[in-house]
Amino acid sequence: MKTKGIIVKGLVLWTLLFVFVGQGCALFKRRVLLVPREPGDTLVEITDPKLLPKFSDNYNRDSLLRSIDNSLEYYKKVKSNPYGFHMDGFSHPALEDTLRYFREGLSRCRNSEEINDFVVKNFRVFQAIGKEYNGQVHFTGYGTPIYDGSLTPTGEFRYPLYKLPADFKKPYYTRREIEERNLLKGNEIVYLKSKLDAYLIHVQGSGQIRLPGGGKAYVGYAADSGHKYNSIGRMLVMDGKISEEDLTLTTLIEYFKQHPGELDSYLKRNDRFIFFKIVDYATPYGSINVPVTPMRSIATDKKVFPAGGLAFAVIEPRKKKSSWFQKTGGVEKSFFVLDQDTGSAIQTPARADVYHGIGDQAMREAGDMNTFGQLYYLLKR
After folding, report:
1. In a 3-state reduction of DSSP, which class is residue 298?
2. What is the pLDDT of residues 331-373, one digit of tens each?
3. Are 341 and 297 in contact (CB under 8 A)?
4. What is the CB neighbour count within 10 angstroms for residue 274?
5. Same domain (yes/no): 179, 134
6. Which residues neighbour 84 within 8 Å (Cβ) at sequence distance 6 or greater?
7. Is there a contact between 296 and 67 (Cβ–Cβ < 8 Å)?
8. Would you call 154 exposed, middle or buried from its count of C-beta atoms within 10 A (0-12, 13-18, 19+)?
9. Which end of the chain is more exposed for a tag (fewer CB within 10 A), N or C?
């Protein structure tokens, strides 16, 4: 994955796949067997109007327009798909045309009914096949953390993030090998208060660092070691330390505050290691090298979904104890998104990660999003 400060998602802390059967009438009614037209297709066109979702958007229109403009900038620069996704109709010119037409039409729509009519009449709708062709997509959230830190080591700031070493090639050494053999000495770029803070920036792939003098440093993704990602959240669940229902970013952080002696052993069970670079902008960029927008940018597997494409997410909150569930009122949410990022744990047509923004509140809400729904992609007729 390459980017100008990309976020290596998250919350990839939770990569368990949960199967909910019969929970939530709206989700259950739309669940159908999706049979791809060609072997390897990960999207299926929905031609029966009765199976289409209601195209209603729960978030700010201005943020959607900004995110569309970001994808249009990508299509100006990149004329064909470099990631391996290939399906009839989803060429970069067609995706660009779709965005321009949608943007123009959206500006004329006065309410949700007009938006829905505009989409149904003017766009082909393709649904992600999800897990086992049932259209079920697991949605999680990610964000950009802000932590206190320093550009030089001190007694308070002792846990570094590293730049790419001169001998880097994939696969590189594992996390355990890197740490136990101190292989990256001399490649430090910033220091944090705790090892968990440093690791969570590894998970998110970017971060903002508050410096002692009052300034900020911005770190972005440079590369990963090429090894498999293993979620410490999943490890805690599998070890019976945290229940599936209670697993959020907040509970994970709290667990290691109460059991600091266990952190090292869990971290070393994740072989993947992330390298960073200092960047000169505060807004994180996604894998297609454009800024990501809160609740408008998603991270997906770019081998199975179209980079930069216009999509529509239908998400049913399920964790009743979570702040995200409470904030959304415990009801289904739907909104248009742009496919602008990717992540090491966001793989297969059954996964999507929604960007929530920068700072503590965004990180809490991202950590609480752990639910299922459907994901649709649009093409202009």
Report:
1. strand
2. 789 999 999 999 877 889 999 999 999 999 999 999 888 889 9
3. yes
4. 23
5. no
6. 302, 303
7. yes
8. exposed
9. C
